[in-house]
Structures are given as structure tokens and as C-alpha cells.
Amino acid sequence: MIGYLSGKILDISDSHILLLTESWIWYEVGINEISYSQLATRDSADVYVYHHITENAQSLFWFINLEEKKLFTELIKISGVGWKVALQILSLGKDRLVEAVQQDDKPAIESIKWIGKKMAEKIVLELKDKDFVKAHVSPEGNTKNQATQISLPADTLENIKSTLQNMGYQSRDIERVLQSLPDDLKTVEQILPYMIREL
Fold first, then answer.
1. What are phi and psi of 60, to 5 degrees?
2. Are the C-beta atoms of 41 and 77 separated by less than 8 Å?
3. Which residues pair with 11 in a beta bridge?
4. Phi and psi (nearest 5°) for 17?
5. DSSP letters of 23-56?
């Protein structure tokens, strides 16, 4: 089983990266939009992966950390949640998803593509009693509601806008979210995941 990979990014899209390791083996690894936002400006990556094996195929999926990988494995255990849906659910962000489960916030989960009311209820029910959900504490210093004017370097701002537009987001929506950007987010790697969660 493959659990971790390190190498050069040869190609990237919002659904996969092609990674070349030092042993000259190429791996195609599935990602979601949050992962894409963190990798889009990088030349190399160290990635935690989940090795999904079936009778007909083998697939690899990338995760930000071991906690997110664990959450993915719990999601795909839920009846009706395949790996594509699980990756889409994780686009909400691990912390936001766990908080939604803790607070029984089904509408937040319903907002995810391919998730309806019944599936949202099932996800909350299945995850609520998991130890990592019970133990989760919101990150300190959450400044989500502290709005500020855009004060980013022009090249950073342009990079963010072009990346999001290439992912299919509308310019007017991008501008709207940028207006409420927390002032502690300064880099592309910090800002893109926030933007994707809010769009």
C-alpha cells in the first residue's frame, strides 16, 4: 500500500496531479479543489495518499494531512459516498466539515455538490460519534468575520483571480469574497483555500 509520495509536479488540474518521484516513477494522484489551490503554484510536493484498490482498478488520492486522510476513509465507509463524492465533501474544508457535523449544520453539508438532504443527514449521523469529531476544537484566532479591504500585492491578487477563474468561478463572485478576506491571510497558499470555501 502506498501512503506517502514526494516528487516533482509534472502536470496539475483541479482533479489530479502527475507526480514524478526520485525513482523516476510517475504517479497520478486525485485531488480536490482545496488541494489544487495549495499545489497550483508549486513545482514539487510531499503528499499523504490513500491507496484505493478495487477488483478493476487502483487509485491514489492526495491529502493535506493525516487527519484529512482519516476523514476521507470514514466518508467512503458511508453507504452512497464513493471516492468522488468524498473528495467533493472535503472541498468544504476539514475543520468546517467537522464543525458542521458537531453543530448538526446539515444545510452547510447540503451546499456541497452532489449532496442532498438525506445524504447530509446520513453524513452527520455517521460521523457525529467518531472520536476525531468529538475531540475537534475550532482553530484559535479564527478571523473569518473580520473583514478588511484588499491590501495584497498586485501580482498575488492577479494570481489568485486567474487561478479561480481557470477553475470556473465568476469574476463578480471572486471580487465579492475578496472584499471580506481576513487580514491574517497574506499568501496565495493561505488565501486560495479560504476563497474556494466561500465561493
1. -120, 140
2. no
3. 18
4. -125, 150
5. TS-EEEEE--HHHHHHHTT-SEEEEEEEEEE-SS
For residue 149, pLDDT over 60 is answered with: no
Is the pTM for the entire model greater than 0.70? no
Using DSSP, how many helices (H) and how many strands (E) does the chain show?
Answer: 10, 5
Q: What's the CA gap between 24 and 33, in Å, rounded? A: 27
Residue 141, all three cell numbers:
484566532
CA distances from 82 to 77, 87, 88 (A): 8, 9, 10
Of the candidates 186, 117, 104, 119, the residue with the CA atom closest to the CA atom of residue 150 = 186
Residue 12 cell numbers, joined: 496539475
Nearest-Å Rg of the Cα atoms of the chain is 17
Rounded Cα distance between 120 and 112, Å, is 9
Locate cell 499568501: which residue?
187
